[in-house]
Amino acid sequence: MEDNSLVSVIVVTYNQHDSIARTLDSILMQKCRLPIEIVVGDDASTDGTRAVCEDYVRRYPHIVRLMPAAPNKGVVDNYFDCLLACRGKYIADCAGDDYWIDPMKLDKEVEIMETDPLVTIVHTNWRIYNESTHETKDNDVVQFPARKTDGKLMLEAIVTQTVTPVVHLCTALYRAETIKRCYDANIDLFRNKDIGCEDLQIVFMLALNGKVAYLPDVTMTYSTGKPSVSNQSNHVKRFRFVRQTAMLSWRLANLAGIDTEQTRWFFSLRVYELLMHAFRSGDAKLKAIALECMSIWNVKPDKRIKTAMAVMSNAVLWNVMLGVRGAFVAIKRLLSLF
Q: Is the pTM of this model over 0.90?
């Protein structure tokens, strides 16, 4: 049952023993007018992450709830199991390798939500921290900087985002009732095993159903530089992620009847990306899947796509070009040493 005096914070984590305490501490430091609960979903970690979470449950039994141990679910099922377990009127989340840096983050967002019932989600700016180089920089790409925006005006941008999210969900607070209603109306949009992510459809559906509020305050540190679902060096895995997220974008665009020059460019770009990952992996089956996606997304091949298709149409030429690419990469690495 929903508690109208409570804020729920979702923390999904997997093998983040070195960072999960930092994440939980950043949430516990919040000075919010409403009490908070932290719903932690550990996805069968093997590095001791769960033991750290269990320690926080012992220390903060009235705040931290750890979801029951279960076989590995994947990020999508893990997230939505946590979401359905949330009891709060509002929901926020912070990934197990990210952390909040403003102790008033939740309170500022709650104030906006409480004063304007038409706002379905409020978000903030963030900074980026590279775990490998230890470099930090503020995000400088904010597509909708207005204090409040009609969410429908943001749908095209949300569907076609490529590098920087229009709304970084780990900075956001959103209405539990709105997203749970959307979830119940179309569970497959959220739970489909082939969608690859959990945040895109949440942000899209919240924008579709109300106003989006924005605070320019930098409230969250987004950690990069380590392998993740969206940051893979393996071309087969990267192919799978690009296809899954693009397929979700296609479903969302169709849901809202969005077919514009921008969306057509986006899906053309995604087809080219898929072909490049297929090329680099040397996998003809991936090429076939990429061409299938081109048909589904109604993409008319441009020069780049036609060139990629031509190179991969002949096995000998494909292997020769892979060799050329390998030599180029080796030379580039060698030159970087001097």
A: yes
Q: Are residues 157 and 56 in the same domain?
A: yes
From residue 259, give the alpha-carbon distance in Å to each of 90, 205, 253, 300: 32, 17, 7, 14
Distances (CA, A) of 210 to 16, 175, 265, 272, 281: 35, 10, 27, 34, 43
Mean pLDDT of the chain: 94
- If pLDDT is split at 50, 70 and 90, which confidence band does 219 have? very high
Backbone angles phi, psi at 299, to 5 degrees: -90, 130
pLDDT of residue 233: 59
Domain span holding position 248: 235-336
DSSP structure class, residue 338? -
Please identify, among 175, 202, 224, the residue that sits at the C-terminal boundary of a domain. Answer: 224
Domain count, the chain: 2
In a domain, 229, yes or no: no
> Per-residue pLDDT tens for 123-160?
999 999 998 888 999 999 999 999 999 999 999 999 99
Give the Cα-Cα-Cα angle 273, 277, 283 (nearest 5 degrees): 135
